Automatic annotation (TrEMBL):
Coiled coil: none annotated. This is Methionine import ATP-binding protein MetN. The gene is metN. The lineage of its organism: Bacteria, Bacillati, Actinomycetota, Actinomycetes, Micrococcales. It comes from the Bacteria. InterPro entries: AAA+_ATPase, ABC_transporter-like_ATP-bd, ABC_transporter-like_CS, ACT-like_dom_sf, MetN_ABC, MetN_ABC_transporter-like, NIL_domain, P-loop_NTPase. Pfam families: ABC_tran, NIL. The keyword Nucleotide-binding applies.
Amino acid sequence: MITLDSVTKVYADRGKHVTAVDGVSLTVDSGEIFGILGRSGAGKTTLLRCLNLLERPTSGTITVDGVELVSMSRRDLRTARQRIGTVFQHFNLMSSRTAAENIEFPLEVTGVGRAERRQRVTELLELVGLSDRGGNYPSELSGGQKQRVGIARALAGRPSVLLSDEATSALDPATTEQILDLFKQINEATGVTVVLITHEAEVVRRICDSAALMESGRFVEQGPLLQLVGDPDSRLAEILLPTGDHDLSIPGRHLTLAFADERAIEPSLSRLSRDLGVEVSILGGTLERVAGHQVGRLRVVYQPGQASDDAVIGYLRERGVTVTAA
Ligand SMILES: Nc1ncnc2c1ncn2[C@@H]1O[C@H](COP(=O)(O)OP(=O)(O)OP(=O)(O)O)[C@@H](O)[C@H]1O
């Protein structure tokens, strides 16, 4: 489990103070995949660098598996850091070493014996689907294969936490999907907790259990994904499952609806028309699989007069649809 309590990082930049991370508190449960979504400059990289203690926060505490990291001595920190593996956007592989030797490197540094290292590298190459590529140099590998090596190297020391710093941002969409699925597969197979930062909604949609939206150094929303997408007012939900731009001048009552699982396919709207005699038009929305569940968000408009607003909203809520009036 990872806990951040009021973590702030202030940089001094040419006489000015830049607050890159501003009082972020966060709990990530063991075995969870947690995504931090934000635009460029939101403070994601700084937060991730605080998490693996490459940066010391200006204030606040960071606890990983019950151990508080910020107050640790440099020496203790070196050991504690072995519990945390990091995967980088640009892979950061050593070009003069083969894939197997890159994966082996952190084990050499921590003094693991040769036979054990070789055994572990073989296991890791298999885990990331590169058993036949161990002898290749990075220049002989595709971007996706390089990132597989990066992931294997991050896992070499059996960390309890895997951090991903925009790990798929340099990859094409198809390779991105494969690498995200690999993160999920590794998370399920090993139980490693994953924290990823990204500016891509697809990354969060595809594999995260929980997520936060970061802006100007702060978390403006966070929670389990399924809970967030069920909240019609959630900004993160609107990014993940957009309902589109709407013309509020269209006459009628405008509603935003959110629903999950069997309710996503249950024809609640057609039943509403049949049972209450209300005609409903869909203005926009998205139906998607999120966090392994079928979820949907829709923007609809109906004509008042045929049934009361309370009757319409009550009818939908009784069927498990979350409703807000626009
Ligand atoms: N070493 C530094 N010194 C001064 N300011 C910094 C430093 N590192 C980051 N910043 C500033 O902190 C803010 C957050 O930057 P950060 O790189 O963490 O954001 P980000 O969300 O990761 O963006 P990107 O995806 O573009 O890297 C920015 O205003 C940035 O200019």
